[in-house]
Amino acid sequence: MGRVIFITGCNRGIGRAVVNKFAKTEPDAKILAHARKETPEFLEFINLIKNAGVEIEPVYFDLSKPDEIKSSLTAMLKANKKIDVLVNNAGVVKEPKSFLMCDMQTLRETFEINFFAQAMITQIICRALIRNGSGAIINLSSAAGMFGAEGRFEYSASKSAIACMTKCLALELAPFKIRVNAVAPGMTDTEMISTMEDKARNNLIANSVSKRLANPDEIANVIYFLASENSSYINGQILIANGGGYSL
Amino acid sequence: MTNLEKYNQAFIDTFAISNDQLENLAYQSIEAWDSVGHMSLIAALEEAFDIMFETDDIIDFSSYQHGKEIIKKYDVEL
User: Which of A31, A88, A142, A176 could cysteine-pair with A56, CB 3.0–4.6 Å?
Assistant: First the structure.
């Protein structure tokens, strides 16, 4: 058996693209694919990967429920002693609103999922990586977390926290031969982007260096690179994949 | 190998120490039992007994002797 890869948020967008990338590039890998809950669409996706001859298992938990995260991951680690790669992809973005209109509840909910849940998942999965004596963790930050984004205060701040978590963990986990890096995508063609008004989205595209959205597969390629031996001396880095420039 | 022998062996292998050093061994009492060594010990014990420690127990695992009490919570008789 090849590597065991645990990826969160696989029901759509970048997570789904990452599953496809590993399935195509490492068909001997075992993929543990997380989604919030079982849906016909997700099961169809899982079966599609299975039918291609790749070992894949669904893992379900709600990122806003710490007890659910803990029990689900404990069961997963009981069944899978070995984990080689963790991709912390799942996240949430709320309706855009100005900072002055951002209520504290929205801020807390965003951080609960985009930061605290990621830290908890990483803390639990780290135990398996430490037992392995090696591993790679790839976190999903965002260009918004690097440069800020108007109307996306809570999301940008939570993704900035992920970037900092990445740097801290890289220092702490290096003695265990675990590398921790992050990808900071710019605007990517996923359902998340659909929360933007057309005018705002078109303006951002027009003002971007590449004049287009990223395809989720392009972000998956970067994640795969950071999970591979080709990046064996890259640790604690935030790889900005935004098509160029210093903004979203 | 008895459970006590497996427990002892985890310390001996992780910290490269001898059996006669175990009795009074505590966190940071030797150079090898630092924060990195601590997580390596936890990983070795989890592997040896097929258990998964609660985070609070990892923090509380402050000595060889106290560890014996903690590990009992996981149905491991020493």
Answer: A31
Domain-located, residue B5: yes
Residue B24 within a domain: no
- Helix, strand and coil content of chain B, in percent to the nearest 5, comes to 60, 5, 40
B28 found inside a domain: no
Q: What is the pLDDT of residues B5-21, one digit of tens each?
A: 999 999 999 999 999 99
A74 neighbourhood in chain B, CB within 8 Å: 52
For residues A130 and B54, what is the distance between their CA atoms, to the nearest angstrom? 16
Contacts of A133 (CB under 8 A, 6+ apart): A176, A177
Taking only the tens place, the pLDDT of each residue in A119-129 is 999 999 999 99
Residue B72: which domain range? 1-15+33-78
B31 CB-side CA count, 13 A:
1
Neighbours of A212 (CB within 10 A): 11
B47 touches chain A (CB under 8 A): yes
In the block, which residue shows the tokens 């078109």? A202
Asked if the structure places residue B65 within a domain, the reply is yes
β-bridge mates for residue A5, sequence order = A31, A85
Cα–Cα distances in Å, from A97 out to A94, A128, A152, A207?
Answer: 9, 40, 7, 20
pTM: 0.94
Tell whether A119 lies on the interface with B, counting CB pairs under 8 A.
no
Q: What is the mean pLDDT of chain A?
A: 95
Q: Do A127 and B47 touch (CB under 8 A)?
A: no
A246 is annotated as an active-site residue: no
A124 CB neighbour count, 10 Å cutoff: 20
Does A120 contact chain B (CB < 8 Å)? Answer: no
CB contact under 8 A, B47 and A74: no
- Provide the domain count of chain B: 1
